[in-house]
Amino acid sequence: MTWWERGSIYEIYPRSFQDSDGDGVGDLRGITARLPYVRRLGVDAIWLTPIYESPQADFGYDITDHTAIDPRYGTLADFDALVARAHELDLKVLLDYVPNHTSHEHPWFAERRDFYYWRDEPNNWRAVFGGSAWERVGDEYYLHTYLREQPDLNWRNPEVRAAMLDVLRFWIDRGVDGFRVDAMRQLLKDPEWRDNPPNPDWDGVKEYDSLLPVHSADLDEVQELVAEIRGTIGDRLMVAEVYAPVERLVRYYGERGRGAQLPFNFHLITTPWEPEAIAELVERYEAALPEGGWPNWVLGNHDRGRVASRVGVAQARVAATLLLTLRGTPTLYYGDEIGMTDVPVHRFDPDGRDPERTPMQWTRDGGFTTGEPWLPYGDLGVNVEDDPPILRLYRALLALRRGIEGPYRTLHAGDGVLAYARGEHHAVALNLTGEPRPLPVRGEVLLTTHLDGGGGDRLRADEGVVLRI
Ligand code: NOJ
Fold first, then answer.
1. Which residue from 209, 305, 429, 439 could staple onto 419, CB 3.0 to 4.6 Å apart?
2. Considering 62, 96, 152, 241, which one is annotated as catalytic?
């Protein structure tokens, strides 16, 4: 088994993890100082969202220099020190790789027109963050799948490919253990620039969803780029950001050694918090996996509301139990392990994602910065210093999961309870309700969300248990 099949990944949002110089913005030295906490939590790798030089229109996903650290976060020397310390602690380091677009302030945008998509006429494509995907400059338009400050790179140009694959080599040479690849499915567009058809099921919420992105995302040809990027990443880990139905998502595993080892599976974020729906999802995903494809699960990230806000604070521990006992590699989002919730703040992010990006709550006073934090703290009654039950549960689950192996099998999905077996020896039962429920499986309680010996033949309100069977 590889480290990433055995292990788990912890996502760090560098602006919000730990500030070391009092400017209110997190930085690399801050992260390095907190690595022992991460180690003790029991995860195996950290994934840093972009730390490269950027005007921060999309908080680092708009890059002006792919091989420089943004001065707000530190220097290359700070980065080397972070990697060295992580490796000393036996933690792997994954970086975010952003191939689909650069900042409009990247020198390429002024000097290399051929690196981007320019057209005389726009088509009807919408940008993910709203409005047309085309921005007019003089008599021409350039394509931006995201903000207008993020022009899309033309991956059909071999020079773009060469330059962008060199970026991977630069960081590989500095010792990183893998990459999370941003916006993977959008990397190639229809060469004929056909209009996207209307989406008959549009719920009227996000303008981007009013059209089906059949000509602007998930083209078959994208798989060639997946293979090319993986070819450069080699045996290190390639995680790919792919928002797609399960059946499309699993294509990103590619053929052996030519795809992403972990195409991010975000479906738990959008599936109703009901046993029937979750069981159906897990079974459908497991069945869709290609031979040798290793599953993975995500409950939250810097783009989606926090899990404790989504399912409720009382259910956050049950959610943790699910995430850490399903088959496959879990990715945790910083702060979820102490039960942080969305903070109602809308100051900076053009897509309204400030609530899930607030500073890590280390102490009763915050502990993130000596200055003014760039976003406000949430409820500081929730903090690491107090070693809350949910944090103890996360640590216990991360330790316990190393001994849980074998296939997933649904044992019970109904009346608010989901129970499943993992292999021959373990079972998990989750009460997704706030009322007691019969425990549908017998066994020795190894761990409960209540951190005691269990409730006998009942699941208590909001309780999850891991059993030896
Ligand atoms: C996905 C990233 O997670 C998100 O934060 C970003 O805005 C877009 N890709 C564009 O890079």
1. 429
2. 241
Expressed in angstroms and rounded, the spacing between residue 102 Cα and the centre of ligand 1 is: 12
- Ligand 1 centroid to Cα of residue 308, in Å, is 22
Ligand 1 pocket: which of 66, 104, 182 to mutate (most atoms <8 Å of CB)?
182
Domain count, the chain: 1
| Residue 128 pLDDT grade (very low, low, confident, very high; cuts 50, 70, 90) | very high
Q: Structure tokens of 412?
A: 């019970």
Give the closest residue (by CA) to ligand 1 atom 2. Answer: 182
The per-residue pLDDT of the chain, averaged, comes to 98
- CATH code for the domain of 228: 3.20.20.80
Domain membership of residue 216 (yes or no) is: yes
86 phi and psi, to 5 degrees? -60, -45
Is 337 an annotated catalytic residue?
no
* Pocket flag, ligand 1, residue 61 (CB < 6 Å): yes
Asked, for residue 430, whether it belongs to a domain, the answer is no
| Whole-angstrom distance, CA of residue 381 vs CA of residue 385 | 10
pLDDT digits (tens, 9 = 90+) for 415-447: 999 999 999 999 999 999 999 999 999 999 999
Residues β-bridged to residue 12: 48
Residue of 51, 54, 58, 348 with the most ligand 1 atoms within 8 Å of its CB, for mutation: 58
**Tally of CA atoms within 13 A in the half-sphere of 344 that contains its CB:** 0
Domain limits at 191? 3-100+158-405
Backbone phi, psi, residue 426, to 5°: -130, 150
pLDDT over 90 at 342, yes or no:
yes
Which pLDDT tens digit goes with each residue over 253-278? 999 889 999 999 999 999 999 999 99
Cα angle vertex 61, ends 60, 66, to 5°?
75
Does any domain span residue 129? no
Is residue 182 part of the annotated active site? The answer reads yes
Residue 58 near ligand 1, beta carbon < 6 Å: yes
How is residue 359 written in tokens?
């500073």
Spatial distance between the Cα atoms of 149 and 297, rounded to a whole number of angstroms: 31
Q: What is the DSSP letter of 356?
A: G
What spacing in Å lies between the alpha carbon of 125 and ligand 1's midpoint?
18
What radius of gyration, in Å, describes the C-alpha atoms of the chain?
22
Tens of pLDDT, residue by residue over 202-256, are 999 999 999 999 999 999 999 999 999 999 999 999 999 999 999 999 999 999 8
Residue 291 lies in a domain: yes
Closest CA to 464 of 438, 412, 428: 428
Q: State the average pLDDT over residues 77-104.
A: 98
